[in-house]
Structures are given as structure tokens and as C-alpha cells.
């Protein structure tokens, strides 16, 4: 076994379910390392329970710590210890009582098992102790590539908590995801924030605790924008999401990322959306020489009243893309909240240079698909559309005829289908249950296009059969 190259063992391990890899840990040294890498590849710290104590104890070993690649931190454990600190009575006790406490502590230590987890538990009595241990453990994770921090619904990030959160900002880090309130963004992304080789940044901003528009703008322009700009040399992917409608235009206007290739924007469906649409338009035009992938999504997470305004959303998108000139290769529009007509406006603006298109979330009719494909086919193009992913109300032979005639250069097609129909003009009928055999119906529809679809994978999202 020792003569078999390690790459072969890695290839074999790909066919073994992760749950069974631990059973092979004693097979040989190759499977030992493969199983250990699988076990500790992704770690999560949220609440101070037995699982977290066990993980902290194991990660103190450098041989284990070096295996961590993905790290999730939601500091609920700090809230737990803060609550304990507040509830602990501050009493002046005599020397006699203090000696009694010391004796009880010694007895407790003798009774408890001598497992590292229990020894660690005895050291985590105050918030400062938790912060110290977290700083020690997280600073010893040299190979983390993906780091996710969520700090919402918790006390504000204090000066003592910033070091253990930022100690993971090391040279191997490639992806950073921050879901924070604005005041916590201010504390974490201060002037000392620096990540040398970061390629992907995801920001999810909660601004519900700051009512002053001036204060919001000050935080975004003084802290957020400079922190993002500090990544200008390497950052290629930026995702921005606001949990509730908020004006992000000041921040967008202040960002300059010459290496940026991909932008994802989640836009609240409620009025205000992301503030002045000229902010997004300015950002897109400022990055037109490098930006090639644009992903747009409509969201409805929070806000006052949860009242979507589709007319306002359509107007906002129209203004945000008006006059924008990009050489886009990939356009991805998702979410069932994104109106079909609005997505057509975006497609009309950017269709000339696209090689990949994804329109999902809303199911589109035959007429909707024909309009979208006509926009793609009406331009003389240097490179034809090669990838298409689209959500359909119904799949029919006529629809495949349409796609094949409009997009002859297509090499990948993914269809999320609601109904299968024998003809495009038919309507689905139900008799209380699905009628016909799903596999047979798909074969009947695809069969006339077998040559064209020979190398095209199709994804049908649980299609319903029409009688």
C-alpha cells in the first residue's frame, strides 16, 4: 500500500461518502490524513456548547489547526458570557468565605475528568477568558481560505473582540463574507483593516439600528469604502446586499477596484431600494474596463411594512442601467421578485456582448422566451451565446424549435420547467394527479432535437405532466 501514490488514494477517497471516511482512518497514513482533512476542513463557532469546547481543544494542536480551510464565526458565545457577567453578583466576601470557595474549586478539579475539554471549560469563566482563548485558537489557523463572520442581533463589537475576529485576516485568505450591522462594520473595518491577497468579498449590511442618514453615509464613506478600496490590487468578486432598503450610493461612488471582474447586487424590492440609482450607474461605468459578470437579485428580508413596489423597483433599475456601457459576458438575473419586464430591460441593455445568460426565479411563458431570445439574436456578434439557463412555465417541442433556431451556437442549456406540454398553445389540465410517464414525455419532446441536444445537459425542475 505504501507504494501507491497519494494522488491515487485521493482519487479513491472521492468515491467514499464523507460519513464513512472516519471508519477508514486507521487503514493507512494516506486515509488518516484524508479523513482528518475532511473532518476539520470546515469549522464553525457559534455557541459555547460541548461541540465548540471540543473543537477549541483539538485546534490547539498545530497538526489539526493547519487542516482548517473554511471558518464560520457567529459570536453567540460572547453574548452567553456577557449575560453571565451581568448576572454574577458583585459581593464583598470575607477571607473565610474566599478560602471556602478556593477549597470547593480544588475539590471540583479533582472530581472532573482530566479531559482537555473540561480543563478548557474551567478557564472560560469571564468574557475576557473567552476572547483570550478564541484569539489563541484563531491566530493558529494559518491555512483558512474562506472566512464567514456574522454579527447580528448581538452586542456591538468591542475593542476586545476585534483582535480575535481580525486575526484570521492572513495571507492565505481568498474569500471573506461579512454579515454585520453598520456600527459593527465601523468597528471591524477600521483603518487597520488589511487583507493582502483577498479575491472575493461578500457584504451583507444591516442598518436598522442607525436611523440618521448622515451617520450611515459617514460610516460607509469613512470606513466601508476605504476598507474595500484597500483590496484594490487583488479583489475580483464583490457581492453587496442590504438587509433592508438603504442608501448605499455614497459608498458605491467612492469604490474603485481596477481588478474587479464580477459584481453581485441584491436590491430590496421596497421603495428606496439602494438609494440613488445613479450610485450604481456610476459604479458600473467606473469599472467598465474590467467588469465582465453581473448578477442581479431582488430581495425582501426586512424593512417597514414589507410592502414591495414593483413599479418603483422597475423605475430604479431602469435609471441604474441607463447609459451604462459594459462589455458583459455573463448576466444572471434571479429571484421570483424580479419582474419579467424589468429583466427584459436589463437584457436589452447588455445583450450585445453576452455569452452566458441566466434568467431564473420567475417562470416565463413562450412569448417571454421569444422576446428574450430575439434580443439575443438581433445583434451581429463576435461570439454567440453559449450558455442559457432559464425558468419556463412549460416545455414543448415548439419551444425547443425556437431555442434551436435563435441560438444555433448554444452548447449548454439548463431548463427549469414547471409543466410539460405536447404543444406550445396547449394549457395544462389536471385530473387530481399527474398523467403519463415523465421520462417518456421528455423523450418525446427532445427526440426531434436529438442531434442538436447531443452535448447539451438539460435540467428540468420536477416538471408537472399535462393530461
Give a quick set of tags describing it.
40% helix; 13-stranded parallel sheet; alpha/beta; 19 helices; 13 strands; single chain; 467 residues; disordered C terminus
Question: How would you describe what is shown here?
Answer:
- By secondary structure, this protein is α/β, with parallel strands linked by helices.
- The chain is globular, with a radius of gyration of 28 Å.
- The longest helix is centred in the first third of the chain and has 17 residues, at 95-111.
- 40% of the residues lie in helices and 18% in strands.
Helix percentage: 25-40%
Largest sheet: 13 strands, parallel
Q: What's the number of extended β-strand segments?
A: 13
Strand content range: 15-25%
Output the radius of gyration: 28 Å
Number of helices: 19
The overall pLDDT average reads 81
Shape: globular
Poorly predicted regions are 432-440, 462-467
Q: Kindly, what is the distance between the CA atoms of the first and last residues, rounded to a whole number of angstroms?
A: 59 Å
Structural class label: alpha/beta
Strand arrangement in the largest pleated sheet: 1-2-3-4-5-6-7-8-9-10-11-12-13
Write the layout of secondary structure elements.
Blueprint: H1 6-13, H2 18-21, H3 29-40, E1 42-45, H4 50-59, H5 62-65, E2 70-73, H6 76-87, H7 95-111, H8 116-123, H9 127-138, E3 146-151, H10 162-166, E4 175-181, H11 182-188, E5 200-206, H12 213-229, E6 237-242, H13 249-254, E7 262-268, H14 277-286, E8 293-299, H15 310-321, E9 330-334, H16 340-350, E10 356-364, H17 366-377, E11 387-395, H18 397-406, E12 412-420, H19 438-446, E13 464-465
Helix pairs in contact: 4-8, 11-12, 14-15, 15-16, 16-17, 17-18
Amino acid at each position: 500500500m505504501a507504494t501507491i501514490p497519494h494522488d491515487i488514494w485521493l482519487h479513491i477517497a472521492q468515491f467514499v461518502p464523507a460519513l464513512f471516511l472516519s471508519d477508514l482512518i486507521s487503514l493507512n497514513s494516506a486515509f488518516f490524513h484524508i479523513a482528518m482533512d475532511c473532518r476539520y476542513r470546515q469549522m464553525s463557532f457559534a455557541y459555547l456548547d460541548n461541540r465548540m469546547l471540543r473543537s477549541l481543544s483539538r485546534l490547539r494542536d498545530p497538526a489539526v489547526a493547519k487542516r482548517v480551510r473554511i471558518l464560520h464565526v457567529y459570536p453567540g458565545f460572547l453574548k452567553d458570557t456577557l449575560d453571565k457577567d451581568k448576572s454574577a453578583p458583585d459581593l464583598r466576601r470575607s477571607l473565610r468565605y474566599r478560602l471556602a470557595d478556593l477549597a470547593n474549586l480544588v475539590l471540583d478539579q479533582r472530581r472532573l475528568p482530566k479531559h482537555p475539554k473540561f480543563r478548557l471549560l474551567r478557564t472560560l469563566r469571564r468574557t475576557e477568558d473567552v476572547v483570550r482563548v478564541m484569539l489563541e485558537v484563531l491566530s493558529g489557523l494559518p491555512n483558512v481560505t474562506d472566512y464567514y463572520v456574522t454579527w447580528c442581533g448581538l452586542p456591538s463589537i468591542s475593542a476586545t473582540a476585534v483582535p480575535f475576529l481580525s486575526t484570521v485576516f492572513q495571507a492565505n485568505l481568498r474569500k471573506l463574507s461579512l454579515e454585520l450591522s453598520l456600527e459593527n462594520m465601523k468597528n471591524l473595518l477600521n483603518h487597520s483593516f488589511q487583507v493582502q491577497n483577498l479575491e472575493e468579498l461578500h457584504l451583507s449590511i444591516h442598518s436598522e439600528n442607525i436611523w440618521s442618514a448622515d451617520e450611515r453615509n459617514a460610516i460607509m464613506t469613512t470606513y466601508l469604502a476605504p476598507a474595500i478600496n484597500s483590496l484594490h490590487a487583488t479583489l475580483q468578486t464583490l457581492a453587496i446586499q442590504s438587509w433592508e432598503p438603504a442608501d448605499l450610493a455614497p459608498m458605491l461612488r467612492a469604490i474603485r477596484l481596477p481588478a474587479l471582474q464580477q459584481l453581485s447586487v441584491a436590491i430590496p424590492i421596497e421603495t428606496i431600494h439602494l438609494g440613488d440609482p445613479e450610485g450604481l450607474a456610476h459604479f458600473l461605468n467606473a469599472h467598465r474596463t474590467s467588469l465582465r459578470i453581473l448578477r442581479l437579485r431582488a430581495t425582501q428580508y426586512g424593512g417597514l411594512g414589507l410592502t414591495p413596489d414593483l413599479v418603483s423597483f422597475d423605475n430604479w433599475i431602469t435609471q441604474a442601467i441607463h447609459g451604462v456601457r459594459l462589455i458583459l459576458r455573463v448576466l444572471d438575473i434571479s429571484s421570483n421578485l424580479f419582474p419579467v419586464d424589468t429583466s427584459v430591460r436589463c437584457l436589452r441593455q447588455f445583450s450585445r456582448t453576452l455569452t452566458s445568460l441566466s434568467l431564473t426565479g420567475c417562470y416565463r411563458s413562450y412569448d417571454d422566451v421569444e422576446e428574450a431570445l430575439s434580443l439575443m439574436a438581433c445583434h451581429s456578434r463576435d461570439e454567440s451565446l453559449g450558455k442559457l439557463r432559464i425558468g419556463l412555465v412549460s416545455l414543448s417541442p415548439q419551444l425547443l424549435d425556437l431555442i434551436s433556431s435563435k441560438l444555433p451556437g448554444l452548447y449548454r442549456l439548463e431548463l427549469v420547467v414547471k409543466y410539460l406540454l405536447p404543444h406550445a398553445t396547449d394549457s395544462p389540465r389536471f385530473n387530481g394527479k399527474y398523467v403519463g410517464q415523465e421520462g417518456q414525455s421528455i423523450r418525446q419532446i427532445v427526440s426531434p432535437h436529438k442531434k442538436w441536444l447531443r452535448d447539451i445537459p438539460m435540467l428540468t425542475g420536477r416538471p408537472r405532466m399535462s393530461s
